Amino acid sequence: MSTSTSVRIVDSADVSSEAVIGDGSSIWHLAQVREGVRMGQNCIVGRGAYIGTGVEMGDNCKVQNYALVYEPAKLADGVFIGPAVVLTNDTYPRAINADGTLKSAHDWEPVGVTIERGAAIGARATCVAPVTIGAWATVAAGAVVVKDVPAYALVAGVPARRIGWVGESGVPLAPGDTDGIWVCPTTGDRYIETNGILTKEAA
If you ran DSSP here, which 8-state letter would residue 140 be given? Predict the structure, then answer.
């Protein structure tokens, strides 16, 4: 395991010697971090969370208690994973093959969930691989995501559908003074909607 003295790993956590943990990161009680994980700086992995083999995490990520991040998930910088979230990795899950034999790791190909910078996944949401959650998007608690989520989208429900837009502060955007303009009530930042895609207006 590649760590520094600034990394905090409590005694009850199970962290592979083949994981790379960035400076300032904390791994809490009963969490498991598997082989080949590459975790950036200042990450937090909560109680009972699972980080699967080879998962990649950027800097400043938070994985809350009992979340399950299955390989080969990729989390960019600043991603928030809420309590009991599941990022799946098996499109056609079966315990056994068609001939009745127990499936092994060689009998299926894992696929991952990709979460881009600053996005947040609410408590008990499930992201069904392979999907990509766009930068700064928010997935509401309990949602089931089965298709890609655009940047800045707020999605909710089963299956998840876009119900609004959010800014980089995480607060829902308000309509601006003209069609296609959205404004963050917290920061005043303006966003432009074009054909279902939101972009931040240049300062």
Answer: P
Name the one residue in this structure whose structure tokens are 């592979």: 16
The pTM of the whole model exceeds 0.90:
yes
Residue range 117-174, pLDDT digits in tens: 999 999 999 999 999 999 999 999 999 999 999 999 999 999 999 999 999 999 999 9
**Tokens read off for 150:** 């655009």
Contact by Cβ (8 Å): 141, 103? no
Rounded Cα distance between 75 and 65, Å, is 17
Helix (H) / strand (E) element for 28: namely none
- Which among 164, 167, 146 has a CA at the least distance from the CA of 155? 164
Whole-number Å distance between alpha carbons of 198 and 184: 13
Tracing tokens 């600053």 back to the chain, one arrives at 118
Q: Give, as one character, the DSSP assignment of residue 102.
A: B
